[in-house]
Design goal:
It is a single chain. The protein is mostly helical. It has a domain at about 50-79. Helix content is about 55%, strand content about 0%. The chain starts with about 20 loop residues before the first helix and ends with a helix.
Length: about 80
């Protein structure tokens, strides 16, 4: 697919996929699959119980940080 350049936002065409169409779902599935290959996210398996919502949010933030650090390590290894 060639890259298109636009001088103004008014030059951009309408979306190519109808909301709810099967073609849109296929494109979304493809993009999500590509993102999983490029930057896979990993979370521990299982169910985690927390005393407060703050504890749950802190654990989620730690998992997000771990995923970000893993991504940075992969990018550094490519250089």
């Amino acid at each position: 697919m060639p890259i298109k350049k636009f001088r103004d936002i008014s030059e951009i065409e309408e979306p190519r996929y109808e909301p709810g169409s099967q073609q849109l779902y296929e494109v979304i599935r493809h993009v999500w699959g590509l993102s999983d290959l490029i930057c896979p996210l990993r979370f521990p398996e299982g169910v985690f119980r927390h005393r407060t919502i703050e504890d749950a949010e802190a654990l989620r933030a730690k998992w997000e940080d771990d995923n970000f650090q893993a991504h940075r390590a992969r990018m550094a290894a490519r250089r």
